[in-house]
Every structure is written in structure tokens, then in C-alpha cells.
């Protein structure tokens, strides 16, 4: 393919050119110069909380980029409206979840026609009138950005903790609501991670606080009615390389403090019978050893990779002596069967596993040891295990979908093995699954591995190489991208696109080893796998290089930067959402929110010359070459604490410098949002419509 062909964008005004202000950095005897380091706001911590204090020079540059992007995409305005209307038409606006039973009530969420935010409600346990506990639309009034973290009720159902972020910076404010009156108490807790866990008596709760570097480093105990300044510090994690969260058991017997990075974990537990006690260590952290816990009455069930169990096994230990010396095996390690999660109920033990690339739900009778799997027929599908809100339950809930089958919600009786369909996702504008084909194909990688690729296209799409293709990938943190139902992509499929998901290394799609061989020194396998997927789709004439638009976000945005440098000629366009592209500089800056916790995923270039070289070899920002690149759309959020706005901003500036005759390179910065973009359900559709309009324009299908 010749990506120097006539641009689909036509004549454009001159793009913004960032001023060069060289800053040099020497590590391990290697000196690098960054001409665009000035785009990183020196006061970023404060700016995340108050975006108005952003340096005027940086703001002016970002606004100039947005103006250039508007000029380049101006002719898609009508197409964006059409796409938005199509996608909105597939959403049931006045939708409601099936409430989950918990004590005297059942709890759920609903949306109203025209509403952007969820409303949280409850009904009497066996049905009846909905009582709205929290109206997200009402709370969001007058705010450019608003995101709820949910609402958690007390055991007696009298009060609820709810949280919100109104800047996109993921610093959440917590409030306490009287669920009978709907009034909030005077308590206001700032800079939290977004949720809390009630003590059984409903008089206090536990929560995590985000520090100035946006790390959840402290767990506090808050007594209702007292100032946040008087909250008791329960545990502080001194190592900046570890994340921390707080949770509770179904039986309300324990508070869990979960401390982990990407490959090591540690639990501390606090019995709710003595809230003033010090948390008790379960098993001391060991590098590379992960474990997670769920309570099963007199035992804990522990999911772990200890003892070489790469694809995980399940152990149990007495509640009063949960140390590793007392762990005994319950579900053995089986290579190639990755156990993803587990939960326990009074009479049954349940886990979600992935085998041969497909998820399965396994149920074991705790008394007899008898096991069975919930069976499914389709070739590729997605499962979600919701379980139950009560420990003394025989019925659990799960969701099922495929790329052609709308999401279905089931209640499943673990004793009778009867499944009851509770709800099928409605597509108000209509959807006929028989109009579409979904397939799973295997693309040979550079080293002989086979990369799974999930496909969706209309039955009448010609498979002669002429079809445009949106090829999506992520490939990091062991996250598996499910082959689930997504109404938005039907707007592409109905325009003749093949939609493809490349299940590349870095995820756990084919087990834990699939993850291990896509991280650290093996990271470039992720990029090569994605290119192999493009090669296969081209060779098999599902599409052609001239018609492939690549898409990825966050760590998948790093993937986009990597493949842009390695094989720009194989892509007609690239969409990089909140892209992690300045990898080396970010991993060298240990003040940034995610840097120390991310070292086990990418490497620590501060301490290790080898790991510095690994990252330097692929870091997209550092490897831009003077060669033609396809049109690139980069998207960012000003208050994003995960991938800071300056990463895509610097990347686009250097692309213009190094490869000025290609592109164009477009940068869209959302000046009122963070990592996830806009917060409302329809506002988010506007952003997807924009991205799809770019893909359609690049494909020449406008």
C-alpha cells in the first residue's frame, strides 16, 4: 500500500507547530533530549483538581490543536450526527436493571428517557414500587463532567455511601445519604478512591484516600458525624509501587485490605467484631506471587499462583488461621485452564475460568464435591459472573452475549441447574442476528504462535479485500477483550466494515503465559501480534492494508504508537485514544500517579540499564522516524491521571516534526474530562461517533 496517496482530508490549514524548548536527561550514560517537555504542566497535581490554573501557553496550544482538528473533521459533522442517532437508537433509553435481592430489598439501577446518568433504586424484595435512592441526573446538573461511583447501603438498609468525581481526575468526594428521606448527612470526605465499606452496625465505614500523587496509599475508618480530619488511619502502604483497595465479605465478618501491583499481592484483614484492632496480615508479599480471598463461613478460599501455578489454583484455610502454612488445595492447577475469579456461598463454591480461549462457569457442591459447568453453544462468546448479594443463596446471576447475540441476563439455580432468562438487551431500532456473521480465526505470528482474531461483519459484505476494517487491540495487564455484543459497531458493519478484535499477547486470552510473553522484555510481541493480525486479514481478503484502520486506547494506545512506527504502510489510519505513548519519560518519572506500580508491567528504567533499553527500543514517542505515517487521530483528557494529556500532545508534535508530509496528525483534547472521556451515556456516544466518522472518512466511505 502507498500511504502517500491522495489524502482523504484534502487541503487543510497549517497545523500548530509546538515551540522547541530542549530539555536533556542522562541515564545509564545515555543522553536524550526532549524538545516538547514543556507541555507537561509543572503544577499538574493541582491542575487535576482545578483545571483553570493550567499554564496559559499550554492551554493556548491545546486549543490551537482542537481548532486544527475541527477544521480537518469539519466535513464529518453531519455524519457524526447520523452515527450518533443510529447508536442512540439502539439504546433503550428508559432502561432498568433486574434488581438484586439483598435482605428486605432488591437493589438496581435505571436510566430515564433523555437522561445521561444512572439512577439507583430499590424495591421490596419480591417486587413492588421503585424507590429512587440517588438520581444521577439531578446530582450532575450544572456540571461539565460528572461521574458516580455507586451507592453502598448499610446492613440495616438505613444509610448509603455514594461518591462522585466532577472533574475527571478520579478524586472522588464521598457523601452519606439517609435512604428513607433522601437527605445527605453533613459528612463530606474529599480525595477518596470512590467507595467505602460499612461496618455491620452502620455507624462507621472504611475507605481509601488518594495522596497528592494520586495513589491510594491510606485506609481510614470514618465514624458517621465526625470530621474527616478525625478519621483513624487503619493502614498506610509505604511502597509507592503498590495499589490498595478496601472491601468486605458477604457475611460482613471481615474488612479486606487488598494491596497489589501487577504481579504481587498481599491481604490484611480486620474482623468486624473489633473495629479498633490492627489489620492482620494473611500472607506476606512475595515478588511474583498473587492471591485473592473470599470467605466461605469457617474457611477462606484463596485464588493464587503460588507454587508455580501459572494459571492459578484455589486453596482454603481456616478463618482463624489463614496464614500460608495452613493453605490446603481445593482446585488444583491445570495448565491451560486459567481461573479468573471465585466466590463462595453457604452450599456452593463457584469460579470463572477460561479454557481454549472461552470462559466457563464451574459450580461445586461444598458438601458432596460434585462439580458441573454451565454450558453454552456458540463458537465465541462473553460471560459475566455477578453471583449473588447474599451468602445464604442457591441462585446466582450471570450475563451472556456474543458479537451477534445481544446481552442476556440469567438467574441460575445451582441445585436444580435451571437457568431463568431475566432480561434480553433490547435494541429499539431493531437487530436481526441472522444478518451478521461472527467468526474466530487464528493469525500466525512471527514466531509461530497463533493469534486469535474475533470478527463481525454483515453476511453481504464482500470478502475480496475491498471491505474496510476497524482492527481493535489492547494487549496489556493480562486484560482479555471479550467477544461480546456491542451495538455501536453495527454502525460500521452496516456500512460494509469488518470489525476485528486481535487477542494479542499481553492479555490472558490463551492463559497466563499469553500475558507473560507480552510484557517487560517481551513487550514487542504485542505489537508484532497485532501486525500479524493485519497481515492475516489482508492475505485472507477479509480486507486489505489500504483499508485497515487500527484502534486502541490507553495501553492499547501505546500499541497504536508501536505499530505506527513498525509498519505504518499496513494501516490506512490509526485511532489512538488516551494513548500511553511517552513510555520512557513516564517510567522515568516516579512522581506520576501510576509509574511505580507500573514497573512490573513495563520495567524500571531508573534502576535497570537493561529495562531502560527495552523501553527505549519501542517507546512510540522515542522511535518516530522520518517516514510516511497514515492519518492519526489522538484523543486525550486534560485531567486524565492515568495517561496524562501531555503524552499524546507531545507525540503529535513530534510526528509533525519528524514526518511533516504525511498524516494528517489530529489531536483532540477534552478540556473537561479525564481518562474515560465524557461521563454521560449519550455524551460518550458523541465521542464514539467522532472516532467512527474518522474511520469512515479515512476509508473513503463518506
Automatic annotation (TrEMBL):
<dbReference type="InterPro" id="IPR029058">
    <property type="entry name" value="AB_hydrolase_fold"/>
</dbReference>
<feature type="region of interest" description="Disordered">
    <location>
        <begin position="1"/>
        <end position="28"/>
    </location>
</feature>
<dbReference type="InterPro" id="IPR001375">
    <property type="entry name" value="Peptidase_S9_cat"/>
</dbReference>
<keyword id="KW-0720">Serine protease</keyword>
<dbReference type="InterPro" id="IPR023302">
    <property type="entry name" value="Pept_S9A_N"/>
</dbReference>
<feature type="domain" description="Peptidase S9A N-terminal">
    <location>
        <begin position="15"/>
        <end position="424"/>
    </location>
</feature>
<keyword id="KW-0378">Hydrolase</keyword>
<protein>
    <submittedName>
        <fullName>S9 family peptidase</fullName>
    </submittedName>
</protein>
<dbReference type="Pfam" id="PF00326">
    <property type="entry name" value="Peptidase_S9"/>
</dbReference>
<comment type="similarity">
    <text>Belongs to the peptidase S9A family.</text>
</comment>
<feature type="compositionally biased region" description="Basic and acidic residues">
    <location>
        <begin position="18"/>
        <end position="28"/>
    </location>
</feature>
<dbReference type="InterPro" id="IPR002470">
    <property type="entry name" value="Peptidase_S9A"/>
</dbReference>
<feature type="domain" description="Peptidase S9 prolyl oligopeptidase catalytic">
    <location>
        <begin position="485"/>
        <end position="700"/>
    </location>
</feature>
<dbReference type="Pfam" id="PF02897">
    <property type="entry name" value="Peptidase_S9_N"/>
</dbReference>
<dbReference type="InterPro" id="IPR002471">
    <property type="entry name" value="Pept_S9_AS"/>
</dbReference>
<keyword id="KW-0645">Protease</keyword>
<dbReference type="InterPro" id="IPR051543">
    <property type="entry name" value="Serine_Peptidase_S9A"/>
</dbReference>
Amino acid at each position: 500500500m502507498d500511504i502517500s496517496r491522495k489524502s482523504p482530508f484534502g487541503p487543510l490549514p497549517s497545523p500548530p507547530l509546538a515551540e522547541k524548548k530542549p530539555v536533556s536527561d542522562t541515564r545509564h550514560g545515555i543522553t536524550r533530549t526532549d524538545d516538547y517537555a514543556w507541555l507537561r504542566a509543572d503544577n499538574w497535581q493541582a491542575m487535576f483538581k482545578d483545571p483553570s490554573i493550567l499554564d496559559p501557553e499550554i492551554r493556548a496550544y491545546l486549543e490551537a490543536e482542537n481548532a486544527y482538528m475541527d477544521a480537518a473533521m469539519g466535513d464529518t459533522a453531519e455524519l457524526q450526527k447520523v452515527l450518533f442517532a443510529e447508536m442512540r437508537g439502539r439504546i433503550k433509553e428508559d432502561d432498568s436493571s433486574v434488581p438484586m435481592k439483598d435482605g428486605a430489598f432488591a437493589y438496581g439501577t435505571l436510566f430515564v428517557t433523555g437522561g445521561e446518568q444512572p439512577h439507583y433504586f430499590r424495591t421490596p424484595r419480591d417486587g413492588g414500587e421503585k424507590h429512587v435512592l440517588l438520581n444521577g441526573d439531578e446530582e450532575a446538573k450544572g456540571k461539565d463532567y460528572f461521574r458516580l461511583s455507586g451507592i453502598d447501603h448499610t446492613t440495616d438498609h438505613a444509610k448509603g455511601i455514594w461518591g462522585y468525581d466532577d472533574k475527571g481526575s478520579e478524586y472522588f468526594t464521598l457523601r452519606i445519604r439517609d435512604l428513607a428521606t433522601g437527605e445527605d448527612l453533613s459528612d463530606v470526605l474529599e480525595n477518596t478512591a470512590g467507595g467505602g465499606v460499612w461496618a455491620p452496625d452502620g455507624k462507621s465505614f472504611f475507605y481509601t484516600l488518594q495522596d497528592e500523587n494520586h495513589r491510594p496509599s491510606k485506609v481510614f475508618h470514618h465514624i458517621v458525624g465526625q470530621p474527616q480530619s478525625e478519621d483513624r488511619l487503619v493502614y498506610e502502604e509505604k511502597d509507592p509501587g503498590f495499589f490498595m483497595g478496601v472491601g468486605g465479605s458477604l457475611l460482613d465478618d471481615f474488612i479486606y485490605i487488598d494491596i497489589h501491583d501487577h504481579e504481587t499481592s498481599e491481604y490484611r484483614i480486620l474482623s468486624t467484631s473489633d473495629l479498633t484492632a490492627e489489620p492482620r496480615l494473611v500472607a506476606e508479599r512475595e515478588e511474583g506471587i498473587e492471591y485473592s480471598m473470599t470467605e466461605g463461613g469457617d474457611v477462606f478460599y484463596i485464588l493464587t499462583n503460588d507454587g508455580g501455578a501459572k494459571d492459578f489454583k484455589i486453596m482454603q484455610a481456616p478463618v482463624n488461621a489463614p496464614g500460608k502454612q495452613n493453605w490446603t488445595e481445593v482446585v488444583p492447577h491445570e495448565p491451560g485452564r486459567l481461573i479468573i475469579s471465585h466466590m463462595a456461598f453457604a452450599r456452593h463454591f463457584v469460579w470463572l475460568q477460561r479454557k481454549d480461549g472461552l470462559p466457563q462457569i464451574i459450580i461445586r457442591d461444598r458438601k458432596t464435591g460434585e462439580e458441573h459447568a454451565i454450558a453454552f453453544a456458540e463458537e465465541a462468546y462473553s460471560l459475566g459472573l455477578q453471583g449473588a448479594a447474599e451468602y445464604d443463596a442457591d441462585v446466582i446471576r450471570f450475563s451472556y452475549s456474543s458479537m451477534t447475540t445481544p446481552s442476556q441476563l440469567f438467574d441460575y439455580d445451582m441445585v436444580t441447574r435451571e437457568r431463568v432468562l431475566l432480561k434480553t438487551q433490547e435494541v429499539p431500532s431493531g437487530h436481526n442476528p441472522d444478518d451478521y456473521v461472527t467468526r474466530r480465526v487464528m493469525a500466525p505470528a512471527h514466531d509461530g504462535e497463533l493469534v486469535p482474531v474475533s470478527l463481525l461483519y454483515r453476511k453481504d459484505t464482500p470478502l475480496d479485500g475491498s471491505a474496510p476494517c476497524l482492527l481493535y487491540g489492547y494487549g496489556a495487564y493480562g486484560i482479555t477483550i471479550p467477544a461480546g455484543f456491542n451495538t455501536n459497531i453495527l454502525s460500521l458493519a452496516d456500512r460494509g466494515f469488518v470489525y476485528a478484535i486481535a487477542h494479542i499477547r499481553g492479555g490472558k486470552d490463551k492463559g497466563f503465559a499469553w500475558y507473560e510473553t507480552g510484557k517487560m522484555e517481551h513487550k514487542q510481541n504485542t505489537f508484532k501480534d497485532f501486525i500479524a493480525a493485519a497481515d492475516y486479514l489482508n492475505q485472507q481478503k477479509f480486507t486489505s492494508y489500504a483499508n485497515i484502520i487500527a484502534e486502541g486506547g490507553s495501553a492499547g494506545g501505546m500499541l497504536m504508537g508501536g505499530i505506527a512506527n513498525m509498519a505504518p504502510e499496513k494501516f490506512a489510519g490509526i485511532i489512538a485514544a488516551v494513548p500511553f505513548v511517552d513510555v520512557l519519560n513516564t517510567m522515568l518519572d516516579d512522581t506520576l500517579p501510576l509509574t511505580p506500580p507500573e514497573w512490573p508491567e513495563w520495567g524500571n528504567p531508573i534502576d535497570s540499564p537493561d529495562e531502560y533499553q527495552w523501553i527505549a527500543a519501542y517507546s512510540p514517542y522515542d522511535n518516530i522516524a522520518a517516514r510516511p505515517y497514515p492519518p492519526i487521530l489522538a484523543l486525550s483528557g486534560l485531567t486524565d491521571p492515568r495517561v496524562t494529556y501531555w503524552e499524546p500532545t507531545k507525540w503529535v508534535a513530534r510526528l509533525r516534526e519528524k514526518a511533516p508530509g504525511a498524516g494528517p496528525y489530529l489531536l483532540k483534547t477534552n478540556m473537561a474530562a479525564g481518562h474515560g472521556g465524557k461521563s454521560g451515556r449519550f455524551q460518550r456516544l458523541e465521542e464514539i461517533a467522532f472516532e467512527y466518522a474518522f474511520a469512515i472518512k479515512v476509508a473513503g466511505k463518506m
